[in-house]
Amino acid sequence: MQFVFLPTAARPGVIRADDIVNGRRVWMTETGWTTDPAQAALHEDEAIAELALLRAMGQPDRIAAVQLVEVRRGANGPEPLAGRDMTPA
Fold first, then answer.
1. Please, are residues 65 and 52 in contact by the beta-carbon 8 Å criterion?
2. What's the confidence (pLDDT) of residue 43?
Protein backbone atom coordinates (compact mmCIF):
# COMPACT_ATOMS: atom_id res chain seq x y z
CA MET A 1 0.00 0.00 0.00
CA GLN A 2 1.39 3.38 -1.02
CA PHE A 3 1.37 6.30 1.40
CA VAL A 4 -0.77 9.23 0.21
CA PHE A 5 0.23 12.63 1.56
CA LEU A 6 -2.69 14.87 2.54
CA PRO A 7 -1.76 18.50 3.22
CA THR A 8 -2.80 20.40 6.34
CA ALA A 9 -1.87 23.78 7.81
CA ALA A 10 0.77 21.99 9.90
CA ARG A 11 2.04 19.93 6.93
CA PRO A 12 1.63 21.94 3.71
CA GLY A 13 2.31 20.61 0.24
CA VAL A 14 3.04 21.68 -3.33
CA ILE A 15 2.49 20.10 -6.75
CA ARG A 16 5.64 18.72 -8.40
CA ALA A 17 5.95 17.27 -11.90
CA ASP A 18 8.40 16.60 -14.71
CA ASP A 19 8.37 18.81 -17.80
CA ILE A 20 8.25 16.40 -20.74
CA VAL A 21 9.62 18.97 -23.19
CA ASN A 22 12.95 19.57 -21.44
CA GLY A 23 13.03 16.87 -18.74
CA ARG A 24 13.28 19.35 -15.85
CA ARG A 25 11.49 19.08 -12.53
CA VAL A 26 8.82 21.79 -12.27
CA TRP A 27 6.58 23.17 -9.53
CA MET A 28 3.02 24.40 -9.98
CA THR A 29 2.39 28.08 -9.26
CA GLU A 30 -0.90 29.96 -9.24
CA THR A 31 -0.38 30.83 -12.91
CA GLY A 32 1.73 28.03 -14.43
CA TRP A 33 4.98 26.16 -13.80
CA THR A 34 8.42 27.11 -12.47
CA THR A 35 11.72 25.35 -11.85
CA ASP A 36 12.04 27.15 -8.50
CA PRO A 37 10.24 25.30 -5.65
CA ALA A 38 10.20 28.50 -3.57
CA GLN A 39 7.72 29.97 -6.08
CA ALA A 40 5.31 27.01 -5.89
CA ALA A 41 1.73 27.49 -4.75
CA LEU A 42 1.42 26.25 -1.16
CA HIS A 43 -1.52 23.96 -0.37
CA GLU A 44 -2.82 23.52 3.17
CA ASP A 45 -6.29 22.26 2.29
CA GLU A 46 -6.82 18.72 0.99
CA ALA A 47 -9.72 19.60 -1.32
CA ILE A 48 -7.92 22.55 -2.94
CA ALA A 49 -4.77 20.46 -3.36
CA GLU A 50 -6.82 17.73 -5.04
CA LEU A 51 -8.28 20.26 -7.50
CA ALA A 52 -4.77 21.51 -8.28
CA LEU A 53 -3.62 17.92 -8.85
CA LEU A 54 -6.47 17.35 -11.28
CA ARG A 55 -5.64 20.58 -13.11
CA ALA A 56 -2.00 19.47 -13.37
CA MET A 57 -2.91 15.98 -14.57
CA GLY A 58 -5.01 17.60 -17.27
CA GLN A 59 -1.80 18.75 -19.00
CA PRO A 60 -0.37 15.43 -20.30
CA ASP A 61 1.11 17.17 -23.34
CA ARG A 62 3.27 19.31 -21.04
CA ILE A 63 4.03 17.39 -17.83
CA ALA A 64 4.27 13.89 -16.36
CA ALA A 65 4.76 12.26 -12.96
CA VAL A 66 2.53 14.74 -11.11
CA GLN A 67 2.78 14.48 -7.32
CA LEU A 68 1.70 16.35 -4.23
CA VAL A 69 4.79 16.59 -2.01
CA GLU A 70 5.21 17.77 1.55
CA VAL A 71 7.19 20.97 2.14
CA ARG A 72 8.12 23.23 5.02
CA ARG A 73 7.61 26.96 5.09
CA GLY A 74 10.96 28.61 4.38
CA ALA A 75 12.03 32.23 4.64
CA ASN A 76 11.79 32.55 0.83
CA GLY A 77 8.85 30.21 0.18
CA PRO A 78 8.19 26.47 0.23
CA GLU A 79 11.17 24.17 0.78
CA PRO A 80 10.93 20.48 -0.21
CA LEU A 81 11.54 17.97 2.57
CA ALA A 82 12.70 15.06 0.40
CA GLY A 83 16.19 15.24 -1.06
CA ARG A 84 15.03 14.05 -4.47
CA ASP A 85 12.71 17.05 -4.66
CA MET A 86 15.42 19.58 -3.83
CA THR A 87 17.49 19.07 -6.96
CA PRO A 88 16.47 19.56 -10.59
CA ALA A 89 15.61 16.40 -12.50
1. no
2. 96
Give Cβ neighbours of residue 38 (< 8 Å, ≥ 6 apart): 74, 76, 77, 78, 79
b/e for 31-62, b at 16 or more Cβ within 10 A?
eebeeebebbbebeeeeebeebbeebeeeeee
Number of folded domains that form the chain? 1
Residue 65 included in any domain: yes
Q: What does pTM read for this prediction?
A: 0.85
**Is residue 68 one of the residues assigned to a domain?**
yes
- pLDDT digit string, tens, across residues 32-53: 999 999 999 999 999 999 999 9
